Amino acid sequence: MGIEIIFLILAVLVIAFGVGVVVLNRRREGVQAPSQRTAAQPAAPPRPADELSTGDTLVEEPAVAEEPVAEEPPAGTLRERLAKARSTFAGAISGVLSRSAITDESFDELEEALLRADIGVNIADELLGGLRTRVRDKEITEPAALLDALDVEMKSRLAGSERSLNFETFDEGATNVWMFVGVNGVGKTTTIGKLAKQQVDAGRTVLLAAGDTFRAAAAEQLTTWAERSDVEIVRGADGADPSSVIFDGVEKAASKNIELVMADTAGRLHTKSNLMDELAKVRRVAEKGAGKVTETLLVIDATTGQNGLTQAREFGDVTDVTGVVLTKLDGSAKGGIVFAIETELGIPVKLVGIGETIGDLVDFDPDEFVSALLER
Amino acid sequence: MAMFDNLSNRLEGIITKVRGKGRLTQADVDEMMKEIRTALLEADVNVAVVRSVCNRIREHAIGATRSKALDPGQQVVKAVNDELTRALGGETLAITYAAKPPTVVLMAGLQGSGKTTASAKLGKWFKAQGRNPLMIGADLQRPAAVEQLRTLGRQIDVPVFSDPEDPILTAAAGLEEAKRLGRDVVIVDTAGRLSIDAEMMEQVRLISGAVDPDYTFLVVDAMTGQDAVQTAEAFHNTLQIDGVIMSKMDGDARGGAALSVKEVIGRPIAFASTGEKLEEFEQFHPDRMASRILGMGDMLTLIEQAEKAFTEEQAEAAAAKLLEGQFTLDDFLEQMQALKKMGPLGGLMGMMPGMPKELKDAKIEDDDLKPIEAIITSMTPEERTFPNIIQGTRRARIATGSGTTVADVNRLVKQFGEMQKMMKKMGMAGKPGKKGKKGRGGAKLPKGLPAGFDIEQGGMDIPGLPGTPGMPGIPGLPR
Description:
The complex is a heterodimer. By secondary structure, chain A is α/β, with parallel strands linked by helices.
């Protein structure tokens, strides 16, 4: 970091604040002199909140409304499960088919539907640009053929990626590490919980490492999942160094010949460079001992808009992301951002979450995904 | 593909082109509208909302083609800003308290939108308003959600009520408990749910019925895409949303979802969560958000934060000294330390309007300031006042004392000198505080600015600063 730029920034900021504050205060004509000057936040002494009531018991394991633990995936393909999602395209599709020829309106309707699925302006332009050319060249003339061509085009964009989860068989004393990263609230912990159960059912030995030491009660949440799948969990104190928690998890797994460590990390916004540095360190440290990171999965909420691409790029830069888990894909048509992530960054979507039960975390099938989007 | 720059950068290219002509043609307007549309869509503004906003902006723009005003391009930018501000809702939602306490607030939203954190932040906010909140943990769905709320409750010293039996009973019993304890605000955290999950939507409707909230807030993740609108509509139909809380506004998402939700359900954005710390939560100001979507920075929030860190006297004295060229390294150090109190420098930069991209992208960490501090604190008072005297042995001594190199010390002294010169020029160009007088005839481009810091291009001017009548940018600064 050049000292010049720091100086310049400071100078600009100092000036702007100084002058800005003065001007603003003068403008207020002393009505309310320096307003909003809040006292420094004193760290409130923690007082046990429990002192207040009888009904105030600690929830160890919610008794009701518990997520059902499905032993086997519910019947139905991804496409069927996503059938609800079709409404976004349904209008556009019936609009296109209602005309005897392909018109500008046909393209407008398709564009709007693509945008509503969060595919993004650029990908939508590319998809439709190609189709426009083919329509102009009379290669496509029927409205139905236009829809088919879009379907083919979208599927081909997602074709050819390796989507299976990478797991290696090591000699004794080494273990696979699957790391889960992403912004806050995307469902990392839940994904680990579900995937752990699936991996155990598939006959693998699994250990969970509660690397989210930041969010209150994140480790408790993961512990609940560990109990459900009957796997070991390694956790540290709140605020502990996540690298060391995950390192401990790896060491423990290696010593017990556990094949797979699934490492949770705290959600972080990709704009926080200190937290992103921390994540890079977590990944390095995970491989310091007996661990080998064979998957780094970026968890993305399917409702994410165009910011998803930035997330994928930034997390990819610091942790070498090997795949995407698209969560919360139930609901309405969405998740279009994966087109940009796959085609522009080359990161394959490996898993999708389409419901609350353990069986609702499934392999990503691009053909079904596109078909579900374009369901008529 | 690189993410596109913000809307104002996009428009700038066209505006520069248009400026020479002095008139906008139909083709110019078309090109601008295309850019505006793309920028809004990339900011995740809902497609339908983009359409209506664009239509209205187009009308303004066509008006500008007929206008004989000197700068039609700027007029369009202003039209965009005005239109966005209008779409976001003009006024900040004012919280009124129930005549018969407690005032009940219900939090709802999708999974992972940030309800539990927002509940605690809101609790802290109410405390800061002198209220005594109680939080109810009615999210019995997600494992350990109540534990999370309890931990947060301890951090902000707000009691938490929960009962693992049933969310509806918990809510009702919690309300009774709040009355018994004389708490005057109750915040009910609920489980995340999908708007299409009929069973869960019915549950939250029953919770709402049990506590009869004065305010129902929908928590929306700022990074949400097009789906935000459908979600908001569904929740609004079930719960009668009073306002929206935007979470995760500290990322780089432009938060177009916020604008869309307001436009579609007609309820304002009430609060915005701007960081991981519990105090990083503020009431939402639509005008500022419009500027942010446009990439024009958020000067008012910046100034408010500055007011927390600086006293008025301090600020006034510093600005005066700066502009008169009597700013010493001691003053500089003091300002730097005050600045740090305002939050991470990177975040502050983002709020500065018209910051050139080079500066915004320069990742400034607060740690980068440490060597500067070290160098200055290694100087004698005399040296800090008259840095010119720092020569040979003094340099070496300061470098050793601060653990830096002679070259670092040199650079700092040189830069400081240039800054002083630059400030002096600005000071002569336009004294601050002369009311109503825009700093238009400002200084020439000061030396020492990196290429790209093009002040002529509107480097520091804030077009129109929406919602602040009569504040014509910042006087005294060159435009």
